[in-house]
Design goal:
Blueprint: E1 30-36, E2 40-48, E3 54-60, E4 65-68, E5 71-76, E6 79-84, E7 89-95, E8 101-107, E9 111-118, E10 132-140, E11 143-153, E12 159-165, E13 170-174, E14 176-181, E15 184-189, E16 194-200, E17 206-212, E18 216-218, E19 221-224, H1 243-253, E20 274-281, E21 284-291, E22 299-300, H2 305-318, H3 347-351, H4 378-388, H5 402-416, H6 420-432, H7 443-447, E23 475-476, H8 478-489, H9 498-505, E24 509-510, E25 515-517, E26 522-524, E27 529-535, E28 540-546, E29 551-557, H10 567-580
Antiparallel strand pairs: 1-2, 1-9, 2-3, 3-4, 5-6, 6-7, 7-8, 8-9, 10-11, 10-19, 11-12, 12-13, 14-15, 15-16, 16-17, 17-18, 17-19, 20-21, 20-29, 22-23, 24-25, 25-26, 26-27, 27-28, 28-29
Helix pairs in contact: 2-5, 2-6, 2-9
């Protein structure tokens, strides 16, 4: 299920470090490379000014986020730490005695190993014929994409290069197997499984050749005296787009998403990708499909389910069946977990992600990794709680917890004496007439359940959730989800749910930089809307509503969250900007 995080695509911001090693300590100035979770390639740049002051910036290469601001660098002996406020992350670790590496842990809700290795390079005394900056343009799907390479050689004659896809806002990819043999030059970009090969002209001003990434594309480079700038990260603004016109506007905006080269777009031909999008503005709605999806296709909505679970809670509070401050322990089978001596976790704590519980239980050990939640039963959940306990820490921070909201759903079902699926039907889907919003699919719905796909576009298994159903088990259509979002915009039109819906919007706690949380709805101060996203093994989703501008949208996609981020998140924010007449983030995912 998707993380509630956005990486800012910001300019480099240099940050001063106030303390330094003594002269006997190795300098930490330099460039470092690391890999987080075996997926995300990171670069840490630290520079030393003439007076010894340090400044630095962090690049997340795979997410196209360069120069992410860091803060609060601290050095204490061999210990180094810093924060990355834009993503609410911290790094702490040790500097190797020779300064060659930084070994430590990254924390963004949970600790992950992250080591950086210093990059060293000794330039050749005489540059080779291909050393320098080169700019080329490839044609794909009727669109031009600029490619830039920066080549250098070392004293041993070995060639190095980096590759930038300027119009996809991606840069700093390391070349592998860069080789110059006479006038023949070639290199590979393993990140995207691409290879360029060609020839250097006699005057050393042109590299003529082709790019191969599944098929060949002509790509010639010309020598430059300075690096070219990437395209703007935003598309030009236009007047507020009406729902009836949004599909036509997006057709042009999505050109990058259809790219088959460099960063292969999520909507590239042959990917099997399918989107359904629902948009409503000032009471006028529109639903349309792209790619392999149909208007009535059913998708897993993943963690958007959490907002339904919280609305069920609010409805049960309004009916006097539970209270927000009721301990969750009291909704579990008698004897499940002992009453703690001090404060204990309440239903409200679970709904605002401030319970002190971790993201996942430590006894979560799926027998089928392709359907990981299917065999996590109520008995497993209760066994975990018996060991973990339900004591509430003092001032627990925001921790995005599938465990916590899954527990909330199970507890509410216990109190109601029905399954979570039945509770969903009784409290929300039935009253709102959402006939395709379910946990288990009928025969007709199964026929409309679009095939999910992994990050590599290969078919993926559907997920079935048991005890943690309240965290991510719902399947739905764009039309149904648009009805749900219309209820958020205008609760008064749904009298039976109006007071409960209003309760879910009340902002109750922090949820990271620039964000607050209601009952599982996240509110971002900029752009100023409520939202939630979701991701399962073969699907991803994003839903938002903006009461101030009276608009909402849902994006349902039959591909899981990719290593470089969630496409529905990006597209959802783009749609919001189009609806209110602002310049949107480019869809260069």
């Amino acid at each position: 299920m998707a993380l509630l995080l956005f990486l800012a695509r910001s300019a480099v911001i240099l940050l001063t470090l106030s303390s330094l090693f003594a002269q006997s300590k190795p300098s930490v100035a330099g460039d470092y490379a690391g890999v987080l979770g075996g997926i995300l390639h990171l670069k840490l740049h630290i520079k030393a000014a003439d007076d010894g002051a340090l400044s630095g910036a962090l690049d997340s290469i795979d997410q196209g986020a360069m120069g992410i601001p860091c803060a609060d660098f601290k050095i204490d002996g061999a210990n180094l730490s810093f924060r990355v406020p834009a993503v609410n992350g911290t790094w702490k670790g040790k500097i190797a005695a020779d300064g060659s590496s930084l070994s430590g842990k990254w924390n963004q809700g949970a600790d992950m190993d992250l080591a950086f290795s210093r990059e060293t390079f000794v330039a050749a005394e005489k540059p080779s014929g291909v050393d320098g900056i080169w700019l080329g343009t490839a044609q794909a799907t009727g669109r031009s994409l600029r490619a830039q390479i920066t080549v250098k050689s070392d004293r041993s004659g070995r060639e190095y290069c980096t590759f930038d896809s300027l119009d996809q806002l991606a840069g700093g990819w390391e070349c592998t197997n860069a080789k110059l043999n006479g006038s023949e030059f070639s290199f590979e970009i393993s990140k995207v499984k691409g290879r360029w090969s060609g020839k250097l002209s006699d005057d050393q001003q042109t590299l003529s050749g082709s790019w191969n990434q599944g098929r060949e594309y002509p790509l010639n480079f010309s020598r430059q005296t300075a690096s070219a700038k990437p395209r703007s990260s935003t598309d030009p603004a236009m007047p507020s787009v009406k729902p009836a016109d949004i599909q036509g506007v997006l057709d042009g905006d999505l050109a990058s998403a259809r790219s088959p080269i460099f960063i292969v777009g999520p909507l590239a031909e042959g990917s099997g990708a399918g989107l359904t999008i629902g948009v409503v503005s000032h009471g006028v709605r529109s639903v349309f499909a792209i790619g392999s999806a149909r208007l009535d296709s059913i998708f897993e909505i993943g963690s958007v389910t959490k907002t339904f679970t919280s609305l069920i809670l609010a409805r049960m509070v309004a009916a006097g069946k539970v209270t927000f401050d009721e301990p969750v322990r009291e909704l579990l089978p008698p004897g499940t977990v002992a009453k703690p001596e001090g404060a204990e976790i309440t239903l409200l704590d679970l709904a605002i992600q401030h319970s002190g519980l971790p993201r996942m239980p430590d006894n979560f050990s799926p027998s089928d990794p392709e359907n990981p939640y299917a065999d996590y039963r109520a008995a497993n959940l209760y066994k975990y709680l018996a060991s973990q306990g339900v004591a509430k820490p003092a001032s627990p921070p925001f921790v995005y917890s599938n465990l916590g909201v899954g527990l909330l759903g199970q507890a509410l079902a216990n109190r109601a004496g029905v399954t979570y699926a039945e509770l969903l039907q009784q409290e929300i889907a039935g009253p709102l007439g959402m006939k395709d919003t379910v946990i288990s699919l009928s025969k007709d719905q199964q026929a409309r359940f679009i095939q999910g796909r992994g990050a590599d576009s290969r078919p993926a298994r559907a997920w079935n959730l048991d005890a943690l159903a309240g965290a991510g088990a719902i399947r739905s259509t764009a039309a149904d989800m648009l009805t749900y979002l219309e209820a958020q915009l205008h609760p008064d039109k749904f009298p039976a749910l109006a007071s409960a819906i209003a309760q879910t919007h009340e902002l109750r706690a922090d949820a990271g930089p620039g964000m607050r949380i209601g009952l599982n709805w996240i509110y971002s101060e900029k752009p100023g809307f409520y939202w939630h996203n979701g991701g399962t093994g073969g699907y991803s989703s994003f839903a938002f509503f903006d009461p101030k501008n009276d608009c909402a949208a849902v994006v349902l996609f039959n591909q899981t969250v990719r290593p470089d981020g969630s496409f529905p998140d990006l597209l959802g924010a783009h749609i919001h900007a189009r609806l209110i007449g602002e310049a949107p983030i480019s869809l260069v995912h």
